[in-house]
Protein 1
Amino acid sequence: MATSGTSLRRRRLGVALRELREHASLTHQQVGLTLDCSPSKISRIENGEVGVRRGDLLVLLDLYGLDDAGQREELLELARESKRRGGWWLKYGELSHPYLKLIQLEAEAASIRGTELLLIPGLLQTEQYARALISTASPDDPEEAERRVGIRMMRQEIFRRPNPPEFWVVLDEAALHRHVGGSETMKDQLLALAEASTLPNVTIQVLPFEHGEYEAMTGSFRVMRFPDHRDPDTVYLEGFSGTMYLDDVRDIRRYSLVFDHLCAAALSPQLSHQRILAVARNLTTHV
């Protein structure tokens, strides 16, 4: 499956430009004046949210005093690579920037660790479960709902690539009991979840009801790590009002620590597998 590292290349370029700017003791405002743009645009470039034109990049490299020909060419190549289009998602038409960024980061990730509070993670959802969720969000546009279902199913292809990512999720038990799509759909989803937990690169732990309150009850998150050390880890936060990406070292450390605490509090992978099957069997008796 064709993939694109556009988001990673753009982020890598942004990190390098931020380091060069800070080394030159320049502010966003000062750089913006040189490029005749707003300070916020410089910030977006450094955060990997937008690309940078070759001419502007050359101006920045001169401004920052980067004379090394090899380093300059490496950054120019990163800028070229960040503009290349490619990937299975192109056939699905226009996607929002945050969602496209998630798809591209997932496609490049070496590991994805995180939590889910109320729903089965999108990367482990069955088609019927996903359709029930998405149709509820787009009740008046069945064509758009099917498009989104197709995208979600294609995202799961990362598990079929030669080197699939390590996927580790701590799942609130509530997600096992919420009957999305009805009992049959939910039973099939739970059986698929139990089967996925047997894969060598997938770890699922259930945080049981009896544990009570815990850290991160206010929202799900994912910590993504990448094979190239130049690409910083990223925290992905998703909520009703939108999504957020964090790559500050302090944020990475904080969410990684919370994840470790949740793993310690949750059932073991083996007991979690049994708990998932037990809930599925209970559904079977009530179908």
Note: The chain is about 50% helix and 10% strand.
Protein 2
Amino acid sequence: MLKSRIILIVIAIALIAVFFSLPKVVVDNENESIDKGSEAPALDSSSEQQASTSADEIMSESHSGKIPEEIRQDIVRLRNSYELAKNQENSAIFADSLASVYRNLNRLDSAAKYVELSKEDNELIGNAYYEAFSFAADVDKAKRLAVKTREYLQKVLNGDPANNSAKIKLAMTYVSSDNPMQGISMLLEVVEEDPNNEEALFNLGILSIQSGQYSKAIERFEKLLLHHPDNIQAEFYLALSLMNNGQKVKARKLFTEIKNKSNDEQLLAAVESYLNEL
């Protein structure tokens, strides 16, 4: 389900912080051009190499919060079993179990590493690294996770150029890099081929908010909701765009509607905060 896929990067307050840290870019769909104050050079192979790291290094970086002793013991047991496994099938089973444990702990980089060790599906691995990339609070770690995401999702696109879901995720790793224009171009390619693509319209709307193009953001989210009316995250960002565009009456009405139908505590907290400002 598409909603469950995109929610990984759109949970209320957390996403606001993530996307407002992206490079300031201007998306002009009508002229199919992208303007930036100073155009950044494309990443070359050497800069990609500098940003990359082994998955082991990514996984071993510190996390906030302490793992409960019982779960820590499970991890130790599963790691030992993985290392002592006598064949690939058993190794994959233990790695898959470790991926589940780490995902339940929200240690998504570690989870992605063990997905990589347990699966052969490039898209599944790429999506796991993309999820970790989406929530990475550390800039350097995010860069390295983006490289891992691109490593696998590019393979997916090479085999299936029409896979827009992989293309959108790949695009978003570039949008938050030193080469955002490449990512935005990829998103525009998707909406040119599939004008009502929910994920592409959502991300373009977010990027329009980030660059202060609130009218464009309104246009994106209204089009998205016309074809995907149940996307409450899009409603939230439409309301936010209306508020910032001076349409406060419409914004208040929409925020109130969201408040009355959502049970998401984080989303409701964000809605209440903005209603207090209006």
Note: The chain is about 70% helix and 0% strand.
